[in-house]
């Protein structure tokens, strides 16, 4: 449904969720900026993940590592030698493709020409230089995934926190890949944010924890991000990396088709063994309870924040032929984002019925803003203001009217049902909290 994709892209631009990076210079392919609402929502999604994966768990620790690591890290991880895609160029129209993404690798998807270059390997690591000399000796790489520093810091984190196996380390941060063909809006970007958690355990418990984390992540999508059953599915990998025991992807129905959102992988002892070998530091774990020493097995959950945002927007976007006379609008199309209240950029909007009520309404807004992501809007008719909030997915609009000063009550309008409740201001926080956290 490419029409839907265009509508989402256009709404994101119009309302300040996402726009092309460096747009006044013509943009730069594969790079996107999050505007004010996008940034608020992105932070909310990130905080929710961190809360669920780190803050509410005694056995998961957080990490915030550098983007540039010692180049040997990427030698050990295999990225420098193997992190590449097969690429081909069309000699006629000059477009470039990843061979594995072409339906027919002998025909240019753009112009139909058969005059393609021989497929060749293209490494996806972004390269830079550290220090004043720009030669190979000073070459370094922007991390292609956030998990490698977790493996590299495993020992330091374990010692500092006195964690015993099993335990996990999580990190949120930027990753960079020189994607050959960035496309589908933010889905395939060259700079993006990952949220990854590596869980270290005894190999004997590996499959048990793999199943545990798979279930945890599915439950998160169902219960926190409110994904409907037909919006996501589990893809079981048939071909596994030689060291892996099991791997699934959580896929989402994006407007352009099914796409990977998250991977949950049983990676065996591969990562820590490789870094032990390449660094010369023994990263094996000593179990003092039984005197056993072994290389921990890793279960990984790895999700893209940008793809989560796109998934949420795709699930949320809706156009309704609606507008009731009561809302003061002509019959028209209501564009609405049915975002889960937990991650909506604005959770509560406060709207005075008239500018004469500005002072009281603004004070109420300031009060609410301490507990929720809130916004104050006094411009235009109430109907227009509701529409603006619908379009950015605000679940609750509060109208302060001429009665409010007398009865200390306000009207709360629900985005999805458009029904209104009269709520006493003293009950308001409780009323909103119950609904937003439901
Ligand atoms: P794909 O097959 O789509 O290229 P991948 O299997 O290479 O993805 P992983 O290396 O498993 O992806 O990365 C974990 C997660 O990071 C992905 O599930 C995705 O959400 C996110 N991610 C990976 N590459 C990109 C990208 N180019 N742009 C945005 N997010 C990405």
From TrEMBL:
User: Which keywords does this chain's UniProt record carry?
Assistant: Aminoacyl-tRNA synthetase, ATP-binding, Cytoplasm, Ligase, Nucleotide-binding, Protein biosynthesis
One GO BP annotation of this record: glycyl-tRNA aminoacylation
Reaction catalysed? tRNA(Gly) + glycine + ATP = glycyl-tRNA(Gly) + AMP + diphosphate
A single GO molecular-function term is: bis(5'-nucleosyl)-tetraphosphatase (asymmetrical) activity
What EC number(s) would the UniProt record show? 6.1.1.14
Annotated ATP binding lies at 177-179, 187-192, 260-261, 304-307
Q: List where in the cell it is found.
A: Cytoplasm
**UniProt binding sites for substrate:** 98, 145, 192-196, 300-304
Ranges for domain Aminoacyl-transfer RNA synthetases class-II family profile come to 6-345
PROSITE patterns linked:
AA_TRNA_LIGASE_II
Q: How does it assemble?
A: Homodimer.
User: NCBIfam families per the record?
Assistant: glyS_dimeric, PRK04173.1
Q: What does this protein do?
A: Catalyzes the attachment of glycine to tRNA(Gly).
Indicate what this protein is called per its UniProt record.
Glycine--tRNA ligase
What is the organism lineage in this UniProt record? Bacteria, Pseudomonadati, Lentisphaerota, Lentisphaeria, Victivallales
């Amino acid at each position: 449904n490419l029409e839907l994709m265009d509508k989402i892209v256009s709404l994101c631009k119009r309302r300040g969720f996402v726009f092309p990076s460096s747009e006044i210079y013509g943009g730069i392919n594969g790079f996107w900026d999050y505007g004010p609402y996008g940034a608020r929502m992105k932070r909310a999604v990130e905080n929710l993940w961190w809360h669920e994966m780190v803050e509410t768990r005694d056995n998961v620790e957080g990490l915030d590592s550098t983007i540039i690591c010692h180049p040997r890290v990427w030698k050990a991880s295999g990225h420098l030698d193997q992190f590449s895609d097969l690429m081909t160029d069309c000699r006629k129209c000059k477009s470039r493709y990843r061979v594995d993404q072409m339906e027919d690798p002998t025909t240019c998807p753009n112009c139909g020409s058969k005059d393609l270059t021989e497929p060749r390997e293209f490494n996806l690591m972004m390269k830079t230089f550290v220090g004043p000399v720009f030669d190979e000796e000073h070459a370094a790489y922007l991390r292609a995934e956030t998990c490698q520093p977790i493996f590299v810091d495993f020992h330091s984190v374990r010692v500092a926190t006195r964690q015993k196996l099993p335990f996990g380390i999580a990190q949120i941060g930027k990753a960079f890949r020189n994607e050959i063909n960035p496309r589908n809006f933010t889905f395939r970007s060259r700079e993006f944010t990952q949220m990854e958690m590596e869980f270290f355990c005894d190999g004997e418990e590996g499959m048990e924890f793999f199943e545990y984390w798979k279930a945890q992540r599915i439950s998160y999508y169902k219960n926190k991000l409110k994904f409907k059953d037909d919006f996501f599915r589990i893809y079981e990998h048939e071909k596994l990396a030689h060291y892996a025991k099991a791997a699934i992807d959580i896929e989402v129905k994006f407007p352009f088709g099914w796409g990977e959102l998250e991977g949950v992988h049983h990676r065996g002892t591969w990562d820590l063994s490789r870094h032990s070998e390449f660094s010369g530091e023994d990263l094996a774990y000593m179990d003092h309870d039984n005197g056993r020493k072994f290389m921990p097995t890793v279960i990984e959950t790895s999700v893209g924040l940008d793809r989560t945002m796109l998934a949420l927007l795709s699930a949320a976007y809706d156009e309704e032929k609606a507008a009731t006379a009561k809302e003061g609008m002509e019959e028209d199309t209501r564009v609405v984002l049915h975002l889960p209240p937990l991650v909506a950029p604005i959770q509560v909007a406060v709207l005075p019925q008239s500018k004469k009520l500005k002072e009281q309404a603004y004070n109420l807004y300031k009060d609410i803003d301490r507990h929720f992501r809130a916004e104050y809007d006094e411009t235009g008719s109430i109907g227009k203001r509701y529409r603006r909030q619908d379009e950015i997915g605000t679940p609750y609009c509060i109208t302060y009217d001429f009665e409010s000063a007398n009865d200390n009550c306000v009207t709360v309008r629900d985005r999805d049902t458009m029904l209104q409740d009269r709520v006493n201001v003293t009950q308001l926080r409780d009323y909103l909290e119950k609904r937003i956290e439901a």
